[in-house]
Write a structure and sequence with these properties.
The chain is an alpha+beta fold and 155 residues long. It is built from six helices and six strands. The chain is elongated. The relative contact order is 0.12. The N terminus and C terminus are likely disordered.
């Protein structure tokens, strides 16, 4: 994964691999500015001996790679793990953009930070469905009808 340039990572999964697709995918994933801060932008080699990226930066590049090829279904497992506030904001914006693209996104998380950006919530406890339905209805049931104060604690 990390043995090539950033541009190659954004071309992964495309039929033609045309270089012009790198910018829109990076913008969709909210990493264009991050990439432009790298020494050679999209041509910066990303290797174990080369440029060092934080775990959060790697997570954000992996998201862009997952979006290559315009998938209609994406599964994100703890997508906000290792992200700083900039990364979380970019991820939330990406989720909103994907809604507009009619992309089905499944988010697996124990961190409720991103719940407000989801349409439907399925809560599992011990492998059994505890609650499911439109996100706002499930959140209301979790908080006994009281408005959620930012976060709902995972149970």
């Amino acid at each position: 994964f990390f043995f090539s340039s950033r541009r190659r990572h954004t071309r992964y999964g495309t039929v033609t691999g045309v270089q012009t697709c790198a910018l829109p995918i990076s913008q969709l994933a909210g990493i264009h500015e991050l990439v432009m801060r790298l020494p050679r932008g999209y041509e910066t080699p990303i290797t174990t001996q080369g440029i060092r990226l934080s775990h959060g930066q790697r997570q954000r590049i992996a998201l862009a790679r997952a979006l290559s090829g315009c998938p209609r279904f994406v599964v994100l497992d703890d997508p906000n793990a290792h992200l700083d506030q900039e990364g979380i904001t970019a991820l939330a914006a990406t989720l909103q953009k994907l809604k507009g693209e009619a992309t089905n996104v499944v988010v697996v998380t124990q961190d409720p930070t991103l719940l407000e950006h989801l349409d439907y919530l399925l809560m599992l406890t011990g492998g059994t469905v505890k609650l499911s339905g439109p996100t706002q209805q499930v959140l209301a049931r979790l908080t006994n009808g009281q408005p959620a104060a930012g976060h709902v604690r995972a149970q």
